[in-house]
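Co-fold these.
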Amino acid sequence: MSKNQRTQEHFVAPVDSAGLPETDAVQDGREPLSMWGEAWRNLRRRPLFIISALLILLIVAVAAFPQLFTHTPADGACYLADSNAGPAPGHPLGFTLQGCDVYARLIYGTRASLLVGVITTVCVVVLGGSLGALAGYYGGWLDAVIARLGDIFFALPLILGAIIVMQLPMFRENRNIWTVVLTLVVFGWPQIARITRGAVISVRNADFVVASRALGVSKFQALVKHVLPNALAPVIVTATISLGTFIVAEATLSFLGIGLPPDIMSWGNDISAAQTSLRANPAALLWPAGALSVTVLSFIMLGDAVRDALDPKARKL
Amino acid sequence: MTSNALQPDTDPAPLLDIRSLAISFETSNGTVDAVQDANLSVLPGETVAIVGESGSGKSTTALAAIGLLPGNGHVSGGQIIFDGEDITHAGPKRIVELRGNSIGMVPQDPMSNLNPVWKIGFQVRETLKANGRPSSDEDVARVLSQAGLPDAGSRAKQYPHEFSGGMRQRALIAIGLSCSPRLLIADEPTSALDVTVQRQILDHLASLTREMGTAVLLITHDLGLAAERAQRVVVMYKGRVVESGPALEILRNPQHPYTRRLVDSAPSLASKRIDTAKARGLSAPDLLAADPGQQSGKATAADVIEVRNLTKVFKLRSGLGRHADFRAVDDVSFSVKKGTTTAVVGESGSGKSTVARMVLNLETPTSGSILFDGVDITTLDKKKLFEFRRRVQPIFQDPYGSLDPMYNIFHTIEEPLRVHGIGNKESRSRKVRELLDQVALPSSVMRRFPNELSGGQRQRVAVARALALDPEVVICDEAVSALDVLVQAQILNLLAELQADLGLSYLFITHDLAVVRQIADDVCVMQKGKVVETGTTDEVFNSPKQDYTRALLAAIPGAGLDLPPEAA
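Predicted complex below.
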């Protein structure tokens, strides 16, 4: 009987002395945060991000001011007497077959490798990003043309395509950083275009885009002002990751002897040159290969960390 | 209904007894107490409703009973007793035994709670098998037909995407009830559905559970619906039970201030238009007389928007190169009088949103005309269209989707001013502050981003943005449908007040007749692309002429409740 009474009673909780707050009151006092602000706060606490960011800073510093990191001048003479010699005072990593300082070449090679990676990525993002955004936003025949065009380039393996292009007379005659960048961009843009197209399609029908159109914003302005900023996160992530792969691609082409000319110091050229003395002097190959791996890994780790930080599902509403 | 609860002598022991339950979540910002000191009990065969706004802990409490708390949540105090057994800290094995057989669950969203790659029949069979029940094709068909699915045998062979929302919900109810549990937890089972479908589903659920003697724990945010369907109501607010007791008593005699607020704002219980200008003694003609630009007759105000024989045909792809015509909007005519609200009501798929998009000139009609201030908007050139945009503004349904997440509130509200080149930086900033003040938001939110605001606050920002250009007409496409009742009432009041102050005209698109009653002067009921009834709100509500309108009216939850007039 007592149980029954308990279930039937009309229970009323005591009212707080402060009274009932107003419906849907704004909570004041928190600092305002944008998506990027929140991402930054999130990134600061990730060891993966901190390590990769520090490494990238170091690599950039080496590329910008190589003379700070080595006493050997850039055009430092190589002495055949030192051929394949081990580490010596002032030359911590030993010498190549030609008697050049491995450490110095490593330092001076950073610039070419990083330049190719960064310039290629920027060009790929601009070209692939705009084509992908236009295709995704306007759809129709424009989308069909761009998407099929991208598919054709996508189907060709980057290295195979690059080997063919770099063999063309006009490329073979004047090989430099720019020809390598151009080749990599031609075969690299479809990936970013695809990602951008997908991201734009997922945003273009959002209510806020319709709302801005109803305010009088033109169709193209809505793409630039509302769609693109919201579609940017996956593009940035893919770009940081592909930066690493472009550095590898340059090294691969140089290794194959069709990338940068031998007179430009790059890790790819060093690896290529060291293969002949691999058994006698593995260090000459392993150091530039190691530098390449660390650089690529840093960019991929950075991309990973940025992706996690920008993941909308991880953001609290 | 209450008589059921008054049979204590037959079976007094509660089936589910939750005693001073506390649940906390571990988040990156520390421990959050989601539920504190919650008490509730469900007798065998009884229906109990938990009512509260989102974030009140109502779902969390129910999920704890079936051991489905998210990974970072745990019961930090109190007891959950099911049929005399303490299952508060029962092991995973025991909880799995209880699920399905003893405690069934009908989840909230029928769109995402069925696995799209498996046939419906397979998903029902899975449940039967998991609980060691016979699971032949006949058993599956029987379970589905019990839940009210016609032609269950062949339906079982279909995939979820071939089902409508109501049918999916029936399939989910079939799964929830397939193993004849003694307690069914229904978490907002119909909030994603149209009112008429909601009514059918709830009627069916009620008769099924009555037959099987199943107790139901119904979770809802609508007090009217709770009072209509449950014998007892538990009101939760901020993780605490603030009031509980017999449903009708709570409705008639709410004690706690929060419950009173809920009763006041439940749209299904409201019986009249929101008191604003009209209640203050001003009628529509007076408002017009106050407008110097208006010189029309007294009783009939001028039409600011007139829609004539509007038709929209979509081409649906049906096989290679062939198209089938789909008449989304079929010969629709209505008008919006200046300074008043016209509501377009209909179920999903009735073409009402397409009408809104055409009136906003975001979609081109196949035929027919839309006159705004006497000019056909379908023939506007670019410059005139830009001018038109300034005078007609939309408010969309989803406050989470209609604000650009990358724009802070200031930029969001300033955008229309900037686009139309109005004022300089300072005057725009002043205007934004004014607008925020009009929608009762402090100017400190200017620097915030949409993801920091609640749904209702975002919708208020959307209202402020729509008002930035001083439009004459605002088109509200389901503007309050995604909001909790309290916030919904707040936004509706805001809209009504703005109308009285600024002389705005509203075209109000909604599926919810209860909302129409509160805000609209004229109603236009749509069904399958056609207008079936038009009239003033009072005419349509008091003497509906069409069966369809009557069905819609009867489906308003709480419509059949007998309440003293002052309760509403």
